[in-house]
Amino acid sequence: MISKVIEKAFNDQLAAETYSAYLYWSMSAALEEMQLPGFAHWMRAQAQEEMNHAVKFYHHIVERGGRVKLGAIAAPPAEWESPAKMFEEVLKHERHVTALIHKLVETAAQEKDYAAGVFLQWFVNEQVEEEAAAELILSKIKMIQDSKGGLYMLDKEMGQRGAGD
Ligand code: FEO
Q1: CATH number of the domain where residue 91 is located
Q2: Of 132, 131, 137, which Cα lies nearest the Cα of 154?
Q3: pLDDT confidence of 98, banded at 50, 70, 90?
Q4: Percentage of residues in the chain with pLDDT exceeding 70?
Q5: 133 lines ligand 1 (CB under 6 A)
Q6: Residue 19's pLDDT is what?
Q7: Which one of 26, 44, 134, 140 is CB 3.0 to 4.6 Å from 76, fit for a cystine?
Q8: Tally of CA atoms within 13 A in the half-sphere of 65 that contains its CB
Q9: What is the distance in A from the centroid of ligand 1 to the CA of 17?
Q10: Distance CA 139, CA 67 (A)
């Protein structure tokens, strides 16, 4: 049985992951408007991953005899000045999510909830990947600076992204 503390913390994270999906979906729409379909595809795949993360929390709460309770999801921003500004925000957001996950690991340890601790290890590793991916894309965007040809090539590359967890 899951403690009330972990149940609440996991429901909050389920909402945070859903907000991440919402944020990236909004970014995808803005990228479509910027005529960057490859970037938009990448961002929709990212949004889908975030929904997968939310579902992992959903299942863990249910499996442990807890109750999933859905909270309100705030409206994400809708406009970004450039892909560079957007990916700066992606990186900042992922660092924020990493901090949330680390806090959950601490809470699980305080609650002596070893199953939750093991479950969260996947997310600890995932956040390393998420931050690294955002950093890499941001560095590529900075590398090409204002080159339209460079952005076109990078858009093609971003369009190759497959589905992940
Ligand atoms: Fe679910 Fe991008 O962290």
Answers
A1: 1.20.1260.10
A2: 137
A3: very high
A4: 100
A5: no
A6: 98
A7: 26
A8: 5
A9: 6
A10: 42
- Let me know if residue 165 belongs to a domain: no
Describe the chain by its helix, strand, coil percentages, rounded to 5.
75, 0, 25
Domain assignment present for residue 164? The answer is no
- Domain housing 17: 4-158
Judge whether residue 163 has pLDDT over 80: no
With respect to residue 43, please indicate whether it lies within any of the assigned structural domains. yes
pLDDT in tens, 119-134: 999 999 999 999 999 9
How many distinct helices (H) and strands (E) make up the chain?
A: 5, 0
What's the number of domains the chain is made of?
Answer: 1
In a domain, 53, yes or no: yes
Task: State whether the beta carbon of 97 lies less than 6 angstroms from ligand 1.
Answer: yes
53 CB less than 6 Å from ligand 1?
yes
pTM of the predicted model as reported, rounded to 2 decimal places: 0.95
